[in-house]
Amino acid sequence: MGANPVYKWFSALLCYPEAELIEALPEFQAALKEWPELQSQEGRLKNFLDYLGNHNLRELQENYVATFDRNRNHALYIFEHVYGEDRDRGSAMVDLLQEYRNHGFELGDDELPDYLPALLEYLSQVPSEHAQKLLGDAVHVIAHIGGQLEKSGSPYAVLLQGITELSPVAPQPLIEPPVRDMDEAMETFGPDISGTEPLLKPGVETVQFYPKAAFQTVSKGA
């Protein structure tokens, strides 16, 4: 499954549920019992697998759409939650796309680079030390999305919490930006009229998952 299969495990479960996912549930359950990284989370993650197994595919798909497509607070696009309509969001996505390409990772058709399942798929294919660094950079946003899902009582909250627990860095609370329309983001970031993709920076050493003002600050006596 790659260098870090646990990331791929979470990635697959966060994607739109298809029949193949349900058919593979025994494999997901086996990994949950066998992989050390998931042992401390086995109880709540098992509950999520039971949720998938106890509903028919149509119900699962309808709930997924209601959760992620109709509620921007739950969007699985990382930069949605920190940049909003700021034009720096496009620059951050270009940096992340270059990070992917530097390691030979190609996105699927019509897929934005800040889509969390895509990032997790990428983390599953790079050396563990590099994957942990990137996860530590992105965990603040991942934990934020998980918190929004938990507030809504979504079964998907445990997946985001599980990913957060894999991080070597403790998450900090985020300041929520204005919500941006994803169709507009796709049009802005996608190929131009000639089919040419936006110019990529020649080299990216650090992916900036959040702007400097993204974190809430806590002052003494406040």
TrEMBL record:
<dbReference type="InterPro" id="IPR003765">
    <property type="entry name" value="NO3_reductase_chaperone_NarJ"/>
</dbReference>
<dbReference type="GO" id="GO:0042128">
    <property type="term" value="P:nitrate assimilation"/>
</dbReference>
<dbReference type="GO" id="GO:0051082">
    <property type="term" value="F:unfolded protein binding"/>
</dbReference>
<dbReference type="GO" id="GO:0016530">
    <property type="term" value="F:metallochaperone activity"/>
</dbReference>
<dbReference type="GO" id="GO:0016491">
    <property type="term" value="F:oxidoreductase activity"/>
</dbReference>
<keyword id="KW-0560">Oxidoreductase</keyword>
<protein>
    <submittedName>
        <fullName>Nitrate reductase</fullName>
        <ecNumber>1.7.99.4</ecNumber>
    </submittedName>
</protein>
<dbReference type="GO" id="GO:0051131">
    <property type="term" value="P:chaperone-mediated protein complex assembly"/>
</dbReference>
<dbReference type="InterPro" id="IPR020945">
    <property type="entry name" value="DMSO/NO3_reduct_chaperone"/>
</dbReference>
<dbReference type="InterPro" id="IPR036411">
    <property type="entry name" value="TorD-like_sf"/>
</dbReference>
<dbReference type="Pfam" id="PF02613">
    <property type="entry name" value="Nitrate_red_del"/>
</dbReference>
<keyword id="KW-0534">Nitrate assimilation</keyword>
